[in-house]
Amino acid sequence: MNRKRKIAVVVTARPSYSRVKTAIQAIKNHPELELQLIVAASALLDRYGSAVNYIEKDGFEIHAKVFNVLEGENLTAAAKTTGIGILELSTVFDNLKPDIVVTVADRFETMATAIAASYMNIPLAHIQGGEVTGNIDEKVRHAITKLADYHFVASESAKERVIKLGEEPDFVYNTGCPSIDLAKDVQISNLDFDPYQKYGGVGAKPDLEKYLVVMQHPVTNEYQDSRRHIEETLKAIDDLKIPTLWFWPNVDAGADGTSTGIRAYREFNKLENVHFFKNMTGDDFLKLLNKSMCLIGNSSVGIRECAYLGVPVVNIGSRQNKRDRGFNVKDVDYNKEEIKQAILKQIENARPQSSDVYGGGDAGEKIADLLSTVPLKFHKTITY
Amino acid sequence: MNRKRKIAVVVTARPSYSRVKTAIQAIKNHPELELQLIVAASALLDRYGSAVNYIEKDGFEIHAKVFNVLEGENLTAAAKTTGIGILELSTVFDNLKPDIVVTVADRFETMATAIAASYMNIPLAHIQGGEVTGNIDEKVRHAITKLADYHFVASESAKERVIKLGEEPDFVYNTGCPSIDLAKDVQISNLDFDPYQKYGGVGAKPDLEKYLVVMQHPVTNEYQDSRRHIEETLKAIDDLKIPTLWFWPNVDAGADGTSTGIRAYREFNKLENVHFFKNMTGDDFLKLLNKSMCLIGNSSVGIRECAYLGVPVVNIGSRQNKRDRGFNVKDVDYNKEEIKQAILKQIENARPQSSDVYGGGDAGEKIADLLSTVPLKFHKTITY
Amino acid sequence: MNRKRKIAVVVTARPSYSRVKTAIQAIKNHPELELQLIVAASALLDRYGSAVNYIEKDGFEIHAKVFNVLEGENLTAAAKTTGIGILELSTVFDNLKPDIVVTVADRFETMATAIAASYMNIPLAHIQGGEVTGNIDEKVRHAITKLADYHFVASESAKERVIKLGEEPDFVYNTGCPSIDLAKDVQISNLDFDPYQKYGGVGAKPDLEKYLVVMQHPVTNEYQDSRRHIEETLKAIDDLKIPTLWFWPNVDAGADGTSTGIRAYREFNKLENVHFFKNMTGDDFLKLLNKSMCLIGNSSVGIRECAYLGVPVVNIGSRQNKRDRGFNVKDVDYNKEEIKQAILKQIENARPQSSDVYGGGDAGEKIADLLSTVPLKFHKTITY
Amino acid sequence: MNRKRKIAVVVTARPSYSRVKTAIQAIKNHPELELQLIVAASALLDRYGSAVNYIEKDGFEIHAKVFNVLEGENLTAAAKTTGIGILELSTVFDNLKPDIVVTVADRFETMATAIAASYMNIPLAHIQGGEVTGNIDEKVRHAITKLADYHFVASESAKERVIKLGEEPDFVYNTGCPSIDLAKDVQISNLDFDPYQKYGGVGAKPDLEKYLVVMQHPVTNEYQDSRRHIEETLKAIDDLKIPTLWFWPNVDAGADGTSTGIRAYREFNKLENVHFFKNMTGDDFLKLLNKSMCLIGNSSVGIRECAYLGVPVVNIGSRQNKRDRGFNVKDVDYNKEEIKQAILKQIENARPQSSDVYGGGDAGEKIADLLSTVPLKFHKTITY
Question: Å from A255 to nearest chain C CA?
C-alpha cells in the first residue's frame, strides 16, 4: 500500500480559517491523505480573535505554530512580518516534509507560505485565486497564482481569470468556496445560543429579534483614511438606533485607525443599541448572520456566504470591488447618509434569492479529493 | 522647481548588474532623477565575483549594502535568504524613502525587493519581465510582474506576455534590454587587455587567437543533477582540446554541485587548454566574448548579447528554454557528444548575423526617461 | 578641531526613557558629543505607552526607529524579539557608525543592543549595571556588564558589584541614576495639571487630595502567576476605597496575565475610587507620585525616585529584591491582607527622609562628560 | 519510573564538536538521559569542514539542523548570524522541549543558544566557562556564564573564576575538558591511516616521519591584520622546509583575511613541503598531532590536548592569552623569525611531560552524570 500524501495547510488568520475549515476536515477524513495543520500570524493572537482556540475546539491537531506578527501596524511591519514568516515556515516545511502545501486567499502574510513552499520545490496549492478586489490583496493574490501549481478557485469567473494568467487549464479547478460548505450547514438552523453569554464582548445587549450585523475592515492602501471610514459607519448605525451586533476587525496595516476610531467613538457616544464582539466561531457567526436583517461593512462574507444564504448586504467602499455578486448586495461609498439609506432599503425589500455563484456546499470534499489525485509537480511554464 | 524623483535600484548579483548598468548610469545622469543604489545578496560576496567592486569602480555611490545570503546552498537557504532580504530591504526603503523601486529580472532573491516595495506602497518597476525560461525563475519572474506597477521589457514577445498577464498596456514598455547597450559599445572594440594578467584565475593559459568561452550555471529545480550536468560539459571541452576560457558560476541553490564538479574534475584531469576565471568586468567579458569562436553553457548572455554581437552559442539544457533567440544559438542536451558536435558545427559556420530582438542599444536611456515621467502609483487592478 | 564623538543611545521602552532622559539631554547639549537617538521595541508601540511621542515632544530628533517586537507575549516571542533586534540594530549601527553605543538597564531586549554593538567592535556603555533583582533581568543585566566596556552605575553597592564581576575599576563610574535628575526637578513643583483631562484613561475620577498610586508589572519567571498576583493587589485596593491612580503595565512576557487580570476584574467589580492610565510623561508621573500618599506595586520607581523624593512605597513581591533601598520602602508578598496593612501603615507614618542612595541629581551631566573623555576601546580582559 | 531528562546539546562548529564529543556520547549512553542533538552554523557547512558529516559517522542522530550563517565574513554578519540563530533555535527548543540545554565554550554564535534557552526559562549548562583569552570570545564567554545555570569547567583556575563572577559554588563543577577524553584514547595509538589518501587536500605530500602541524585562526578583534599575521607563519614554514601538515581555519569574522592570505601565498610560492587539509575527524587529527614534532598556530588544541599528550607547541599571538598552560607551550608574536626560532627550539628539546591541568580523561562521563542529577532551575541571583 502507498504512503499517505502529507498535506500541510497554513492558516494565518481567523477569516481564512472559516474559509478552509471544511477542506481541512475533508483532508483529515480522507483515507489517502495525512493532515499537517500549521497555525501562524494573527490566527495565534488574542487581539485578533485567537482562531487557534476554535481550531483546537474543532478537534484538529496543530502540527506547528508560527509566531511572525511584528508589532507596528504599519506597512513596514507588514513586509517584515512576511519576511519572518518565510524564515519560520521554511523551517517548519523542512521538519514536516509535506507533499503539498496549501495556502489560502490573499492576505499579505500568505505570500510567506507561497514563497517558502515554491522555493523549496514543494508543490503549492492555492485556494481562492483568480478573484478581483482592488488593494494590495490584488497584487498578492495574483502573484501567488504565479507561484502556485494547483488552483482551487471559487467561481467560474475566477477560473477563467487564472487560466488567462497563463496557468495550465488542467490544474485550475472550480471547486466552489469551502466557506459555502459551512453556510449550507447553518442555512436551516436556528439561533440556538445566547451570543452575549457565550462570547461576552462589550456594549449594550439589544434584543435579538430584528438586528443588523456590522463587520468592517481597514483597507490597506487607504491607510490614512481608515479612521474616517469607520466613523461614517459608526454614525450611520448610531443614527438608525436599530439593534446591531458589531464585529471587531482583524489585523491589517491600518487596524489601528479602525480600532482607534471605534474606541474613540464609544468613549463619547452612547451607541445604545450596539454590542461589540471580538470573535465568534464561524458557525455561530453564520447563524447570527442568517437570522439578521442585513450585513453592513466590507467583509467578503457579505459577498460569498450571504449570496448563498440570501442575506441582504450593504457593502461599503472598494474592498470587494469587482468580486462576483449574487442577488443580495447593495454597494455604497464611505458616507453616513448613503449607508443609512441603503440599510433601510435592504430591510424593506423581500429576502434575496439564494445564489450558488460561489459553490454548492461541497468544496471541502472536492479539494481533498483533488489533493489525493493531482500529479505531484513544482515545475511549470507559462502557457503563452 | 520640482524635487527630483528618488529611484532606488536594487542589484543582487553580478549578472544582474551587467543587465542594468546603463540604466543606472542614465538614472544618475538624468536631471530629474536622483539615484539610490542598493547592493545586496551575492553581489557583495567574494565567492560570487564581488559585483560591488565593479560597481564602485564604475563610479557609482552605494547608498546601502544588504547582506542577506544565508549559507547552506540548499533550497531552504534560498527561501530564508529571501526572508532576510525582506527584513533588511524594508528598513532600507524606510530610510531612503524612494519614489520608485527598480528590481531586475528573476533571481529568487529579487522577490524580496518586490515584496518589500509593494507591501510598503512604493511604486515598483520591473526590468526584464515577460520572458519564458522553465525553472523556479519562471515562477519568480511572473509573480514579480503581478507585484510590479511598471514593466520595462526587453522584447516584443515579452511585452505581449506581460499584457496577457493582465497588466495595463499603458504601463508595459518595450525598452529593449540594457545589456545590449553594453554590447553595442564593445562591438567594434578590440581585445585591449591581457585577461590572465588582469584577472588572475587558475589553470592553463592558452593562446587567445581562437578560443571558446564556457559559462554554465546550476539549474535550481534539477538540484541533484547539477554535478552530472557540469561533468558532461567538462568532458566535452576536455576532449576538444581547443583553448577555452571558463567562467565560474554565480550563487544559486545547487552551486555546490556545479562548483564541486569543476573542482573535482580538475583534481583528476589536466584540462590542458582551459583557464578558469572567477569574475571579470562586464565590458571585458563582452570583449572576450565578441572575439571568441563560440560561447558554451546556459548563460542568458548567449541568448541576448550574443544575438546582437553575432557570436555563435551552444546552449545546454533547459535554463534558457523558450526565450527569444536571434540567429546564433544551437540548443543541445546535457550530453558530452551533443555538446562536442554542436561546438564543431558552430566553429565551421559563418559568423551569424546581428539581431535586435533584445533591443537596439538605448535601453538604459529609455528606462531613465520613463522613470522620470510615469505617474506615481502603487495600486492596480487586473485588466480582465 | 576634532570631530565630535557620535553617541548612539538605544531606548527600548517607556520606563527606560525616563531613566536616561537627562543623559540624552546632556549628550545633546555637550559641545564635543553628537547624539544619535534610536527608538526601538515597545517604545514605539501604542499598546505600551508610545514613549516615542514623549521623546519627540521633548525635542529630540530620532535617527532610527527599530520595530522588533514579535507578537505573542510568551517567552519564545521574547527570545525572537531579541533576535530580530540584533538583525535590525546591526544595520542601524552600520549606517550611523557611532563611536560609542549606550544601552540602558536590563530589559530582555536590551541584550540585542549589547550584542550588536560588542560584536561589531563598537565600544559599549551600560547604564545601571551592577544591581540585584531576582528574575530574568538578573541574568540579562550581568551578562550585559560582561559585554560592556564602560559602566555608569547608580549606587556604590552597584559599583562594587560590577568590579567584583571582573571589570576594570577604571571603567566603572558611580554617576548616580539619571532618573533622580528628573526627580530633583519635580521635588518642589506642584500638581499643575489635571491628569484626567490631560491623559484620559478609564474608570472613576477620584478627588486628587489624598490618593494612592499603583504600578505593578508582570514578573517574567513567574509567568503563570501574573494573573493571581495582580488580583491580590486589585482586591486590596478595592477594599481600601481610597482614591487611586493605577498605571498600566509595560510589555513583558506575561503582560497578558496582568492585563487580562485587570480587565476581567473591572468587568465584574466597580472599583469606584480607581482611575486607570495607560501612559504619562515622566515629569507628570513624578509630580503625581510626589504628591501621593503611597506608591504600591513593584516598579523600580518606588525604589529609586521615591527614595530621593521621600515617597512611601509598598513594594510587592520579588521584582525589586536586593536592590538598595532608601528609608521609604515596606516590602510585602502577593497577599491582599499584607498589602492592605502595609498601605495603611505607610499612610499613618511621617513622610520618609530623602536619600541619595541613587544619586544626587546630576547623573546625566556626569554621563555625558564621561562619554566625551573615556578612551575608545572594545577590548577587555577579566581582571582575575 | 521517571521520564528521562531531555538534554539538548547545540554544536555550532567543528572544533566545538571535538570539545564535547565524549559528553555527547556519555549523554546518549546514560540510562536516565535522552540526547537531543542540534547541529548549527558553520558545523553544517562544507567551507568549514562539515562537522555534521563526522557527527553522523560517529553514529549520533541529529534532531535539528539550524542554518544561520549569514555570508559576509565581516563583523556585522557575525552579529546577524547570532540574531538569526536566536530566531531559529527558539523554534527548535519550542519543538523539542528540552529539560536542559547545553552550550559549548565561547564562539560568538553560541550566544544565540544561551539567549534562546535562558529567555525561554530552560535551564542552561555551559561547558568551558571561566577561561581567559583576550578577544571577543572573552566577552562572549563570561556573558554566557552570567546567563547559565550550571557550569562544567575544565580547570581549577576556571572554577575559581566562575565563582568570582558571582555564580553559586554549588553549581560550578570542575569536570575537566571532554577534549582530553579523546586525547586519552589516542595517546597510545599509532598513525594507522594515510592522511593524504583518507582526506585529500592539496599541496605537496611530504613524508610523515618527522613533521610539523599548523593550525592558525583569524583573531576577531584584529580583523584587518589577519592577512599579515598568516603571512608571517607562511614565510616561517616556507623557510624551514620541514614537512608540514597545515589545517584550514574555521569560520570567523576575518576568515577572509586568513584564507585569502594562504591562497595568495600558494599562488606565488612553492611551499614544497606543505600539505593543506580542510578537515579531519578529531581522532585522526589527534593521532597526527600526537606523532608530530610540534604544533604551530593559535589553536586551543595546543593549550589543552597537547598539554595532556605532551606535544610541543609554538603558540602565536594573543588568541590563547592567559589560558592555563601545561609544560609544552612556547609563546611568540606574529613574527617570522620568532616563529622559526621557537619551532627549532621545540624540536630540539625533549618531549614535554604530560599535564592534567585540563582534566584526566573522564569529563564526558562526569558531565552526563551531573546532567542527570542537578536540580532543574532557571532562576538565580548573583552571590554578592
Answer: 12
Complete DSSP assignment for A109-169: THHHHHHHHHHTT--EEEES-S---SSHHHHHHHHHHHH-SEEEESSHHHHHHHHHTT--G
Which of B88, B83, B14, B26 has the alpha carbon at shortest distance from B60?
Answer: B26
**CB neighbour class for D208 (10 Å; exposed up to 12, middle 13-18, buried from 19):** middle
Q: Are D304 and D358 in contact (CB under 8 A)?
A: yes
Residues on chain C touching B95 (C-beta within 8 angstroms): 64, 95
Position B9: which residue type?
A: V
CB-CB under 8 Å, C90 with D108: no
- A152-188: b or e for each residue (b if 16 or more CB lie within 10 Å)? bbbbebbbbbbbbbbbeeebbbbbbbbbbbbbbebbe
Which helix H or strand E contains C238, and what residues bound it?
A: helix C226-240
Nearest C-alpha in C relative to A257: C46
Measured CA to CA, the distance from residue B6 to residue B28 in angstroms comes to: 10
Mutate: best of B97, B108, B115, partner A, most A CBs <10 A: B115
Kindly state the DSSP code that residue B72 receives in the 8-state scheme. Answer: T
Residue numbers in B near D77 (CB within 8 A): 67
DSSP designation for D121: T
C276-323 pLDDT, tens digit each: 998 788 889 999 999 999 999 999 899 999 999 999 999 999 888 778
Closest partner residue to C77 (CB to CB) among A67, A74, A256 is: A67
Q: Contact A312/A293 with Cβ under 8 angstroms?
A: yes
Alpha carbon distance B5, B100 (integer Å): 8
Q: How far apart are CA B97 and CA B120, in angstroms?
A: 10
Number of A–C residue contacts, CB under 8 Å = 42
Distance CA C231, CA C219 (A): 14
How close does chain C come to D329, measured CA to CA in Å?
Answer: 21
Q: What is the DSSP letter of B193?
A: S
* Digit-coded pLDDT (tens) for C350-382: 999 999 999 999 999 999 999 999 999 998 989
Q: What span, in angstroms and rounded, lies between the C-alpha atoms of A208 and A202?
A: 16
CB atoms within 10 A of CB C344: 14
Instruction: Note the ipTM here.
Output: 0.84
Q: How many CB pairs under 8 A join C and D?
A: 144
Under 8 Å between Cβ of A322 and A133: yes
- What is the arithmetic mean of pLDDT over C137-146? 95
Chains that touch D (3 or more CB pairs under 8 A): A, B, C
Q: Is D136 exposed, middle or buried (0-12, 13-18, 19+ CB in 10 A)?
A: buried
CA–CA separation, D143 and A285 (whole Å): 52
The answer to whether residues D270 and D241 touch, using CB atoms and an 8 Å cutoff, is: no
Among the residues of chain B, which ranges form H helices?
A: 14-29, 51-57, 75-96, 110-119, 136-147, 156-164, 178-186, 195-199, 226-240, 255-268, 282-291, 300-303, 305-309, 336-348, 363-373
- In angstroms, the CA D101 to CA D20 distance is 13
How many whole angstroms separate alpha carbon B365 and alpha carbon B371? 10
Coil, strand or helix at B162: helix
Q: Checking DSSP bridges between strand B274-277 and strand B202-203, what pairing results, if any?
A: antiparallel
Give the angle B208-B216-B340 at the CA atoms, nearest 5°.
Answer: 65
Cross-chain residue pair A71–C71, CB shorter than 8 Å: yes
CB B152 within 8 A of CB B370: yes
Domains (range + CATH), chain D: 5-177+359-373 (3.40.50.2000), 186-348 (3.40.50.2000)
Mean pLDDT calculated for residue range A293-302 = 94
Cβ C117 vs Cβ C149: under 8 Å: no
The alpha-carbon gap from B190 to the nearest alpha carbon of chain D, in Å, equals 29
Q: What is the phi-psi region of residue D188: left when phi exceeds 0, alpha when psi lies from -120 to 50, beta otherwise?
A: alpha
Distance CA D91, CA A93 (A): 13
